[in-house]
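Q: Can someone sanity-check these two? First one:
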Amino acid sequence: MEEYFDEILLLTMDYAPKLILSVIVLVVGLWLIGVFTNMTSKVMKKAKVDETLIPFTKSLLSWVLKVLLFISVASMIGIATTSFIAVLGAAGLAVGLALQGSLSNFAGGVLLLIFKPYKVGDLIESQGALGIVKEIQIFNTILTTFQNKTIILPNSAVSSNTITNISANGTVRVDLEVGISYDSSIDDAKEVLLKMMNDHELVLKDPAPSIGVNALADSSVNLLMMPWCKCEDYWDVYFGIQENAKKALDDNKITIPFPQRDVHILK
């Protein structure tokens, strides 16, 4: 018993200082990591970095520093960190292979946050979806459509394909087509429709609305109306201009024709 007691005492005297020192380093290290990540977050806010990027950067930085701290503490205690790092690397490789899709979405999210092709509140079109950006997450981008539907787009698909940012410049052109009969005057119709667009309260004066012949169709001459408006007024202008166009053409006796067919009967 005395031999066991002496051996335990020697081990305690040998490892106790290392254990106490490692606990102190761990506690102080975690405190310093918290202080450092909070300072980084404040600096990024002062630099007006995108709000979506701040929590992601803070979280990523915290985890990396904590892993390094734990490895250092384990080394101080006497644990062989070489094998530990090898096991950690193998586990990381296995997880990476299992989560290839998620990692590609993660990489896509980082690219979107860095290069900022769009921001929260922008109206964008991507992957056949049209909507307002509600949230840019690390793995997905969340859109809200005009029908109040939620669309979740994987960031890898968004970042590697075409993105149309409709509201990037603050204004958008609304293209609307209306047909008039071949017997109607093109000049009169253009004058009536141009005045109607200029009278609309949501249509911008600069750039000014324009109109032109878009097609000589089978049953009609198709005119393309091109008013400009603010992005948030798009649908009000889209529906309002079409309604006002019908009323303006009716008031001026300009015909919007139905599809016509000529039938020739041979005896």
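And here is the second, same format, sequence then tokens:
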Amino acid sequence: MTNTQNEAMLIDFNNVTVIKDGRPILDSVSLSIAANENIAIIGPNGSGKSSLIKVMTREYYPVADAPELRMNVLGEEIWNIFDLRKQMGIITTDLQNSCLRDSTVLEIVLSGFFSSIGIYDDLFDVTIEMKATAIEILKFLGIGHLAHKKMTKISSGEARKALIARALVHDPKALVLDEPTNSLDMKSVFQFRKTISAIANLGKNIILVTHDLSDIIPEISRVILIKNGKIFADGKKEDILTNENLSALFEIPVTVQKHGEYYAAFC
């Protein structure tokens, strides 16, 4: 692949294998994601979907001597990990749990500029421009009124939006959402989906990791199924989300239904 082609790709992996505790958690995975392409990665627990995200963000590294190994992100093979994470905003339940402390929402959002959890006045130089950017993003997400609330005093749905705001302060190329609606009630899930749709319509790549079909917003056009550390199926959403594919993926009878622009699965 030429450099010009690489620059048009968010992710370009070839033959990526990751070993943990003596076994492959990713097995010879090859995957390309184009710029401005919104995808969902679906798989059962332990399938390797979160591990794949950790390779993208350089938390996990592949077996170095794999033949024809390629692991490019945004056209580059070598990244400073902090620079990379500015380009790929990560939202996970684990990160939210780390942020549930005595910091305000605004402090948590500002900490995104420093790749920290919270702000420490003696270490960080928070500028007027940073504060203006953080407040603008909070308003865009509809939680500007929560700026000075403690993270421990807001709802799970509001905290998830605060994490999105934290991820957006660097204007990243992509948002990576790992099981984003875990622990959210129905209203929060509805509001979260609307928020992610709005961000996708700004031109950000959305990479959604889930086992719940109802998380797949209309702006996602491609679905990747992963099982036992391998790509099980990959293609257009309407071609991949079938009874046959989902039944084979989860190894139980699954019925897929479409409601408007959203999908649901029943077993």
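A (reply): Looked at the second one. The longest helix spans residues 186-200. Residues 1-7 have pLDDT under 50 and may be disordered.
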